[in-house]
Specification:
The structure is a single chain. The chain contains 16 helices and seven strands. The protein is of the alpha/beta class. The chain folds into two domains: 161 residues; 148 residues, Glutaredoxin. Strands 2-1-5-4-3-6-7 form a seven-stranded mixed sheet. Helix 9 runs antiparallel to helix 10. The longest helix has 19 residues. The radius of gyration is 22 Å and the shape is elongated. The two termini are 26 Å apart.
């Protein structure tokens, strides 16, 4: 098994389906395959956990897999997990190998241009994490130029930057009232925020497979945040009675856990539209003054960084999928 670079970076486009769907088990080595090839195939396929991936790295080294291929496989793992901080942390290793790349030593890159595009991509992610907007634009543009086939990987980070800029001018109107999913009674956002450190708005839909798959993780997150003084409200799109009925059917599955309020968005003055919600599930963290502290995917490292700034005791709960294994 070998993975083409264009396929590798498409994983970075941020599909929630990638995050929620377990990867296939590594295929058995073909007859006559060397232990080295089998170890490399396992390394490129392993997605069970970071510990399992690190074990695969050690096995690959013992089998004689080169450090170039191991670096690429580690990169692929963090791309697949959408771990921008881990990708940025690899930048020194990529830069150290910038001039020594050989296609014959590579597991996933067929040309030097593909390799250089990835280095520019990693450099851009590092710049984005440091708040260096100009550096991000410069390096992501160069990545596009070197690897146009990988454009699907680069676009989400550009969208992330633009969304952050747009959210700086958004203020939540706490006088807005959304209908309770269960009773239909109006619920003021200000009443939810009252005496809390922040308000988490969880946008979801019962018709989204990604939302359904992530609901156990959301329940664990909500319970953790509520225990640390952060209010939580889940919001579905408004104007569809059948959708609301489907949503009510999913909520009891999480009964017994403090998941916060369950609300229906407004039709005319949609909160989701004002917050530019395009992909579900989405998390929006709101400060007591109505400012947006985070708007994005629940798996985004920046979501947990924003929470940690509010309260250092808040830690990311173990995935429900991990604890079930």
């Amino acid at each position: 098994m070998r993975v083409q670079a264009a396929v590798v970076l498409i994983l970075a486009a941020g599909s929630a389906l990638v995050a929620q769907t377990p990867p296939p088990a590594p295929a058995a080595p073909a007859a006559g395959a060397s232990l080295k090839d089998a170890a490399l195939d396992e390394l490129l396929s392993e997605r069970e956990s970071l510990a399992a991936h690190e074990k695969a790295v050690n096995n690959a080294r013992k089998a004689g897999v080169g450090e170039q291929a191991i670096l690429e496989a580690r990169f692929l793992y963090h791309v697949d997990q959408r771990e921008d901080q881990a990708i940025a942390a690899m930048l020194p290793e990529f830069l150290a190998r910038r001039e020594t790349f050989r296609p014959e030593d590579s597991a996933i890159f067929s040309t030097r241009e593909d390799w250089l595009a990835v280095i520019e991509y990693v450099t851009a992610i590092d710049a984005l994490g440091k708040g260096d907007k100009d550096g991000f634009k410069r390096h992501i543009t160069e990545a596009f130029w070197l690897g146009p086939r990988q454009a699907a990987a680069f676009a989400p980070h550009i969208e992330r930057l633009r969304l952050d800029e747009q959210m700086r001018s958004v203020k939540i109107d706490f006088s807005a009232k959304l209908a309770s999913l269960s009773s239909g009674d109006p619920v003021a956002l200000g009443d939810l925020m009252k005496d809390h450190k922040a308000l988490l708005l969880h946008f979801w839909s019962p018709r989204s497979p990604e939302c359904e798959a992530s609901m156990p993780d959301f329940a664990a997150t909500a319970a953790s945040l509520i225990s640390n003084g952060i209010a939580v409200a889940s919001v579905i799109p408004g104007g569809d009675a059948a959708l609301a009925a489907d949503a009510r059917g999913m909520v009891p599955a999480n009964a017994g856990k403090p998941c916060g309020a369950w609300l229906v968005d407004l039709e005319d003055k949609s909160l989701g539209r004002d917050l530019r919600i395009q992909n579900l599930p989405a998390m929006v963290l709101v400060s007591p003054d109505g400012s947006i502290l985070f708007n994005g995917a629940p798996t985004d490292d920046d979501f947990w960084n924003a929470l940690n700034k509010i309260d250092t005791r808040i830690v990311r709960p173990a995935s429900a999928n991990d604890t079930a294994e």
